[in-house]
Amino acid sequence: MLARRIIPCLDVKDGRTVKGVNFVSLRDAGSAIDLARYYSSNGADELVFLDITATVEARGTMISLVRDAASCISIPFTVGGGIRTVGDVENILSAGADKISINSAAFRSPGLIDEAAGRFGSQCVVLALDARTNASLPSGYEVMVDGGRTPTGRDALSWAREAESRGAGEILLTSMDKDGTKDGFAVDLTRIISTNIDIPVIASGGAGKMEDFRTVFMEGRADAALAASVFHFREIGIPELKAYLRTSGIPVRQ
After folding, report:
1. Helix/strand/coil (H/E/C) assignment for every residue in the chain
2. Which of 76, 80, 86, 149 is 20 to 30 A away from residue 66, measured at CA?
3. Residue 22 pLDDT > 50, yes or no?
């Protein structure tokens, strides 16, 4: 079994890290750069920065924040939010990001995945997939876009498969039903996606206790687990989490 990754997520609004429940009711969690520096030196395997209002505000990702982060951390980081073109991808990678995350723009123009993967390599392209329960669809889950504001009618597994075929190197899978609730990851959703595609799946949404990470790795078959508030507010320490996972037989990086 490959080592599982632990990834803090920084949802960024106006340069600050924020966190909500089910994508709303945001509260401040501190300076994005200060948190990034902290995680880089305290056991995180990677970081994800999401500029959560760039898409709905029809603007680009904050390049200055990417540069600042790149200058003060030593772990890989992914940046998403407001990425619409291959030019946007190039700008973010040139500013120091290791990967880009695309969501709404990729859904509306799937060729963006092909273009980005063709030019920069699949290892740089993360398809962010926000899903919500919808029993009328084959997988039971529907793709949502625009920061979770807009239902698409598209089946989540179908879209994940298409994204993989177009060159996405990884899926960042967020359960809107679980986001911020701290009652556990969406294990069924994660397993449906992870066992039906061949690229890594990052589980996101619902982490509340250490056991939740063990469950999503063992039962959800996730390759990585992402969380926000439990890390930001020091409810779970990453070194302690990794020690717990090791004792549970789950390989993690030092």
Report:
1. CCCEEEEEEEEEECCEEEEEECCEEEEEEEEHHHHHHHHHCCCCCCEEEEECCCCCCCCCCCHHHHHHHHHHCCCCEEEECCCCCHHHHHHHHHCCCCEEEECHHHHHCCHHHHHHHHHHCHHHEEEEEEEEECCCCCCCEEEEECCCCEEEEEEHHHHHHHHHHHCCCEEEEEECCCCCCCCCCCHHHHHHHHCCCCCCEEEECCCCCHHHHHHHHHCCCCCEEEECHHHHCCCCCHHHHHHHHHHCCCCECC
2. 149
3. no
Q: Where are the domains of the chain?
A: 5-247
Give the pair of three-digit tokens for residue 149: 């504001």
Q: What is the mean pLDDT of residues 143-154?
A: 92
Handedness of CA 23, 139, 82, 183 (dihedral sign): positive
Select from 68, 70, 69, 55 the least CA-distant residue to 13: 55
Please give the model's pTM, rounded to 2 decimal places: 0.91
Tell me the HSE value of 40 on the side-chain side, using a 13 A CA sphere: 16
Class at the top of the CATH hierarchy for domain 5-247: alpha beta
Annotated active-site positions, please? 11, 130
pLDDT digits over 41-62, tens only?
Answer: 999 999 999 886 655 455 556 7
Q: pLDDT, tens digit, for every residue of 95-130?
A: 999 999 999 999 999 999 999 999 999 999 999 999
